[in-house]
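Think of the structure tokens as a kind of shorthand, similar to the way a musician reads notation: each symbol stands for something richer, in this case the local conformation of the backbone. In the example below we present two proteins back to back. Begin with the first one, reading the sequence and then the tokens, and try to describe in your own words what changes along the chain.
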Amino acid sequence: MNKKWISSFLAAALLVVLTGCFGSPSEPPPGAGQAAASPDNELFIYTVNPPFYAKEAVFEKQLGQFIKKKFPDITVKHVHWDNPGRQYKDLIAAGTIPDIIIDNTRMNVQRWIIDNDLQDDISELIKKYNFDTSKLNPALMAQMRNLTQDGKIYGLPFNNNDFVLFYNKDIFDKFGVDYPKDGMTYDEIYELAKKLTRVEGEITYKGFSQNPGHYMNYNQLSLSPLSLTEDKASLSTPEWKKVVDNLRRFYDIPANQFDTVETFASKGNIAMAVATVDHIVSFVEQNKNLNFDVVSVPSFAEAPNTRYQPNVYSMYITKQSTKKDLAFQVMAAILSEEHQIELAKEGLIVPLETKAVQEAFGQNLPQMRGKNTQAIFHGKTAMPPAARANGLLWYDVPMQNVFAPLIFKESKDSVTALRMIEEQSTKGIEALKATKEVKK
């Protein structure tokens, strides 16, 4: 046999195997000739986040059925990230590039979409279809614009996995302390935490708990752990020390050593805990006797009524898509008030924050009935950091390690803990840079 023919045959066979991973369970694997192309009326949507789209029924209910109703002449092919077989590298290797990708903006856009040259500036499509981005949460749109310094917009926000302050009413009642309210500062919550942290017999009541990594990554002072101008971490600043000291004082309350917020429902001994909004449902499911409610997250006195930075999942049109106009029209339809209301009913915090959307939030979820869900919309979302200089590497600085283990286990002072993570991260960036240079 001719060696060149054998190589072509093996490449085609590999393509069939890889693309076979991407169809739905009932869909037969495509032939080699179909791998890189798709019908003109098929829109390929690849979801990495939100994670609940791993369940096809959830995707169909929230997006698939709506798209088919609005665009009856097209079919939707949906693939959700999985390991192995459905990762970015697998789609790229098979030549099956999606039209739309929905993923975590802060964590994944730089390292997966941009680093694989899948990004595409949609500014002209926004103009062409007269899409008004000003109607969307301004901090979420800033996150879209701040991916580059040249004004390019690679995506539109889809869902912000925001935070609220949970509180256990029974603990407040037991100790005769007034419930927290929307709009309170960390100073006010700290005073409540001191009153509610007690040891009674074998039970330790903890006044306050929070995930330090989330608190740092989405900090309300809009600080970046990375230098905006150089390939290095940047944590040795008075502003970062302020952020660390603010949370550290809660941990330093005798007997209030932090427990994971996940135990808020299971143990029932935490008076207040900051967690993502979806925990309203999961806490009810874990403990139906738990008497709790939510208020807005505490804020810094110098940035009052400020929620956390965007923890946003966004929609991106790929450079390789041959259906950019259709893809944008679908994204625009998803962001219409009509569908934003429907997504809000399902408990998604959407970019459109009109009165109708806010009032619809959680209506389809019995677990949210009677809860102060309007706390989710109190105040404004903190702006993300400014755009970094073009060409700088993205690195996931392990902000949670400032507290665990350096502060929680090793009792480092705040300045030392921040400096250590800064030094470790800068070395990590240098190593990553060297690896990328070798690959060139």
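Once you have a description of the first chain, move to the second and do the same.
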Amino acid sequence: MGEDVSRSPMLLRTLGEDLRTVVERDPSVRSRVEAVLHPALPALWSHRVAHRLHRRGLRVLARALMVVVRAVTGVEIHPGAELGRRVFIDHGAAVVIGETARVGDDVTIYHRVTLGAVGWWHDNARAEGERRHPAVGDGVVLGTGATVLGPVDIGSGAIVGAQALVVKDVPAKGRALAPAAAVSPPGKTPQCAVELLRHTASAGSW
């Protein structure tokens, strides 16, 4: 797990590294000037500052900054979450990262990813200070719409595919992939699609 660089005295250096990461990983960005306009970069930079405020006990101010950033960018990162170096949030829309989540170095997070808890009915019974959110190792890729819930561990180098729901640990370099869409001829619905619909309709809020 990478260092929690938001606590480092070298904050400005870390922000510069975040900027370079956008240029390196987003093929639509041609320069650092253009990277400043990347939709998710302000959310990441603001979190670096909000996390420092949170660690110093300025929780209300930190949360206020989080709320403003969420309204502007659509990205919600709790000030208590720990993010490593060179984290790349692509697009950013509807990304949610919970308070006790830990994200390592060189992690790629696509839009609509949730690193959440399993629900207050479980979390209120946990011991004080117990982790409620996922820990994501170095070099992990979290695909579009991936949902990782609870104090699970996603090992370094793992891939969580688009639309995957993860509630158990994923080993280092492991894969957690959702079923791909079934393609059928016009006018015919495959039985697997019918079963998937039944399962989804009974899955509740998840």
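Compare your description with these statements about the second chain. The chain has a mean pLDDT of 89.
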